[in-house]
Amino acid sequence: MARIGPNWVICGDGAELRRMWGVRSAWQRAPWYRGLRINPYKDNAFSTLDDQVHEKLRAKLAPGYGGKDVDNLHQLIDEQVASFVSLIERKYLSTKTEFKPVDLARKVQYFTLDVISSLAFGKEFGFLAADKDMFGYIKTTESTLTTLLVVALVPWLLSILQSPRLKWLIPDARKMVGIGTVMDLAEAAVAERYGDKPVVKRDMLGSFVAHGLSKEEAEGETVVQIIAGSDTSATAIRSTLLFVMTSPLVYGRLQAEIDAGIRDGRISAPITDAEARNLPYLQAVIREGLRMWPPATAVLPKISDKDQVVCGVRIPAGTNVAWSTWSIMRNKETFGDDADLFRPERWFDIPADRQRLMEQTVMMEFASGSRWECLGKTVAQIELNKTFVELLRRFDFTLLDPANPWNSFNAAVFIQSDMNVVVTRRSPQQ
Ligand code: HEM
C-alpha cells in the first residue's frame, strides 16, 4: 500500500482488492469513474457510480454482451479474423524476393475495431478492408485519452466540465473527427431499432433493446462498447504476440500444439472457441500474456463513506483506493520467483489451490468476481482464442528490430505502434 497523492492510496495486494471489489463490500466506485462519461451529461455502464442503478443497467446489457441473445457472435468474429488474415496475405507477406514489413500493432487495432463495430452495429467499420485509420478514429482517441484521464483525476475540474450551465466550455465530442463519426454511426444504428416500425435483430443492440434499454442509453452504450472493447483486446493480442516472438521455446511449443491439433482433427478451419479452450498450452500462453502485460492499467479507484482498514492500514472515509495492476500481476508470492518471466509452463503441474489463486489474480484484469466485471470478457476471450491459432497456423512472425520492438505508451489502456514485423508463410505440418 502506498500513498500517491492527497486522498489517494494505491494497493498491490490482490486478496485485499478482491475483498473490496466483492459484491457485498462497503466499497463503491469513486468519482473518478465519472470522468469516463462520453456524453458529459449522461452516465454509461462505466461511469455509473450508484450500485443499484449500475446493477439494473448491467442486467439489461449482460445477455447481449455474453452472446446469449446473439445468433451470430462467433461467426462475426470469424469473419473479421478471416479479414485480418486476408489483409496480411494481400499486402504484407514477405518472401525471399519481397520484403514487406508491417506495423502489426496498427493492424491488430484495425482488427479489434472491426470486430467490435460488427458486433455493435451489425456492420464493421472497414479498417481492415481499407487498411487505414477510418475517419481518423485512432488518431483522435489517442490524442484525447490523456486529457480524459487527467480530468478524471481532478474532481472539481470534472464537475465544472460536466455542468450543463458550462456546456459551451467543453469541446463537443460530436464535432471531433473520429469520435463524432462513431457517435453518428451509433445514432443511426440505434434509430432504426426504435420508433413506429423498429427493425428487430438478434444481435447485441437487438438484445439491449429487448431488455429495455432506452434509445439514449443504447446510443451511449454502443459507443462505450467501441471504446472499451478495441484498445484492450488489441493490447492483449499485440503483447502476447510480442512475448511469443521473443521466447523461442514458447513459440515452438505453441506452434507444435496447433500443428498437432490440426493433424489430429481437433482444430477446425477456422478454429472454434470450444476447440481453443481445449488447447492447454494456448490457454497458458493467453493467461501469461494478460499477466505480463495487463491491457487495462487504469487505477479503478474505490471509495468508502466509512473509515476502513486495508492491508492493516487505517484508510479514512473518502480516500480513493486504486489498484496497482503491475505489482499484482508480477507478485512473486502468487506467481513464483520468476514472475517477471513470460513462462506459460508455470500454469502446469501446480497444486489446485495455487492454480486457483493464479487464475483468480489474472482474471482481475477483467475485474472478475466483482460487481464491475468486464461485460466484454466473453468477446475478448473468443477473440484471443481464435486469433493466435489462425495467425500461427499460417504464418511465421519475426520482429524487425528486437532491440526496439514497439512504441508503447500507457494511458490506462495502451497506445502502441511501430511493432514492425516480417511475416512469412509456413506450411501447417512443418
Ligand atoms: C482483454 C480485453 C479486456 C480487458 C482487459 C478489459 C478490462 C475491463 C475492466 C478491468 C473493466 C472493469 C472496470 C471497472 O469498472 O472497474 C471492464 C469493464 C467493461 N468492459 Fe472490458 N475489457 C476488455 C475487453 C472488453 C471488450 C472486448 C468489451 C466489449 C465487447 C468490453 C466492454 C466492457 C464494458 C461495457 C465494461 C463496463 C462494465 C460495467 O461497468 O458494468 N471490454 N473491462
Please identify the top-level CATH class: Mainly Alpha
Bound chemical compounds: protoporphyrin IX containing FE
Could you tell me the mean pLDDT?
Answer: 92
User: Within the largest sheet, what's the order of strands?
Assistant: 1-2-8
From the spread of the alpha carbons, the general shape counts as globular
- Helix count? 17
- Overall number of strands: 12
- Termini separation comes to 50 Å
Q: Could you give the order of the helices and strands?
A: EEHEHHEHHHHHHHHHHEEEEHHHHEEEE
CATH topology: Cytochrome p450
| CATH superfamily placement | Cytochrome P450
Q: Work out the count of structural domains.
A: 1
CATH architecture: Orthogonal Bundle
Protein name: Cytochrome P450
Pfam families: p450 (PF00067)
Cofactor: heme
InterPro entries: Cyt_P450, Cyt_P450_E_grp-I, Cyt_P450_sf, Cytochrome_P450_monoxygenase
Characterise the protein shown here.
With 430 residues, the protein is mainly alpha-helical. The protein has a single domain, classed as Cytochrome P450 (Cytochrome p450, Orthogonal Bundle). It contains 17 helices and twelve strands. The strands form five sheets. Strands 1-2-8 form a three-stranded mixed beta sheet. Strand 6 and strand 7 form a beta hairpin. Helix 2 crosses helix 9. The longest helix has 31 residues. The protein is globular, with a radius of gyration of 22 Å. The mean pLDDT is 92. The structure holds protoporphyrin IX containing FE. Protoporphyrin IX containing FE (HEM) binds next to helix 2, helix 10 and helix 17.
